[in-house]
Design brief:
Layout lengths: L2 H21 L8 E4 L5 H9 L5 E5 L15 E3 L2 H4 L8 E6 L6 H18 E9 L8 E4 L11 E5 L1
The structure holds S-adenosylmethionine.
S-adenosylmethionine binds next to helix 2 and helix 3.
Protein name: Class I SAM-dependent methyltransferase
GO molecular function, one term: methyltransferase activity
Keywords: Methyltransferase, Transferase
Amino acid sequence: MTRLDIFINRMTAQRDLLNLLRDQNLLPEGPIMEVGLGNGRTYSHMIETFPGRRFIVFDRHVAAHKTSIPPEEDLVIGEIRETAQNYIGSEAALVHADIGTGYPEKDAIVMSWLPGLAAGMLRSGGYAVSGLALDHPQLEMLPIPDHLEPGRYYLYRKI
Ligand SMILES: C[S@@+](CC[C@H](N)C(=O)[O-])C[C@H]1O[C@@H](n2cnc3c(N)ncnc32)[C@H](O)[C@@H]1O
């Protein structure tokens, strides 16, 4: 499998899991956390997919397309491990995190703190959609649809 195949599978899984939450009307009340704005493609998809929500968006810098830059008051700039601490207890409906690097040793470090942050920001019954596994006792891993490649993207519900 080429890196292009892997990328396409990852993006397909990301989009389809977000759409599944919409189509099955699964999200409880609450804001949506976008952990890693990047180019803003996912942010652009989520604001259309979940209209009427507040989005709080994290990144160390703004490098998004100009059409996908969140309002200043919803943009949290800095190292997510530190900045997101202020959002523990936000009772979020959804945390989406796309901050994997493809380097196992770097991702292992992120996976040591991201699960706790995601669980801490979510309300009970809220969902996490993540490119990295979120191993945490309060996050129940849910099955993903059969057409998605296992291990490309993960879906969790906070207990
Ligand atoms: C893969 S990109 C996200 C792509 C995004 N889903 C999109 O639609 O374009 C990951 C982003 O997360 C940011 N990021 C990764 N780790 C971070 C960290 N520890 N603190 C702050 N930002 C981080 C990077 O700067 C990058 O912009």
